[in-house]
């Protein structure tokens, strides 16, 4: 992967904290949901409820598609990422704690006190997202311009 494009991807990952994740339901229909994420380089982490539809979908099929972007008043300033990736549930407590820490680092200090304690790793389903293909959308380089990166 070209270093300049990797730096662009990392900058976009660092600028955002919410992504839209698509998983596959048992009937084959895609399910898109919004989740917060943390990242360590190109590896992303998110969590969801233990009994959530998302966790059940991923237990059956770990393939996901996701987007990361933001609104802009000028169409020629649109930037963002879309990815095809695999999402594996984390069972290792040390990695789960790391993932929770990365998720919280995305939010500025101080946060209002949460109305509940931070979840322990065993109270939520935490997933590691490993990209396979990343599309880097950058309209500043031309209308609908995207660079496709194989990971």
From TrEMBL:
<dbReference type="GO" id="GO:0016627">
    <property type="term" value="F:oxidoreductase activity, acting on the CH-CH group of donors"/>
</dbReference>
<dbReference type="InterPro" id="IPR052019">
    <property type="entry name" value="F420H2_bilvrd_red/Heme_oxyg"/>
</dbReference>
<keyword id="KW-0560">Oxidoreductase</keyword>
<dbReference type="InterPro" id="IPR011576">
    <property type="entry name" value="Pyridox_Oxase_N"/>
</dbReference>
<dbReference type="Pfam" id="PF01243">
    <property type="entry name" value="PNPOx_N"/>
</dbReference>
<protein>
    <recommendedName>
        <fullName>Pyridoxamine 5'-phosphate oxidase N-terminal domain-containing protein</fullName>
    </recommendedName>
</protein>
<feature type="domain" description="Pyridoxamine 5'-phosphate oxidase N-terminal">
    <location>
        <begin position="5"/>
        <end position="132"/>
    </location>
</feature>
<dbReference type="GO" id="GO:0005829">
    <property type="term" value="C:cytosol"/>
</dbReference>
<dbReference type="InterPro" id="IPR012349">
    <property type="entry name" value="Split_barrel_FMN-bd"/>
</dbReference>
<dbReference type="GO" id="GO:0070967">
    <property type="term" value="F:coenzyme F420 binding"/>
</dbReference>
């Amino acid at each position: 992967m070209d270093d300049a494009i990797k730096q662009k991807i990392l900058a976009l990952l660092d600028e955002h904290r919410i992504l839209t994740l698509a998983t596959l339901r048992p009937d084959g229909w895609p399910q898109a949901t919004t989740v917060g994420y943390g990242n360590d380089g190109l590896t992303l982490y998110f969590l969801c409820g233990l009994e959530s539809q998302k966790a059940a979908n991923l237990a059956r099929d770990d393939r996901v598609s996701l987007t990361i972007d933001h609104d802009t008043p000028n169409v020629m300033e649109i930037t963002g990422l879309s990815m095809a990736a695999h999402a594996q549930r984390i069972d290792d407590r040390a990695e789960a704690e790391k993932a929770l820490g990365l998720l919280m680092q995305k939010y500025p200090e101080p946060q209002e006190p949460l109305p509940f304690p931070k979840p322990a790793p065993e109270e939520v389903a935490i997933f590691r997202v490993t990209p396979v293909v990343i599309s880097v959308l950058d309209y500043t380089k031309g209308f609908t311009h995207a660079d496709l990166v194989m990971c």
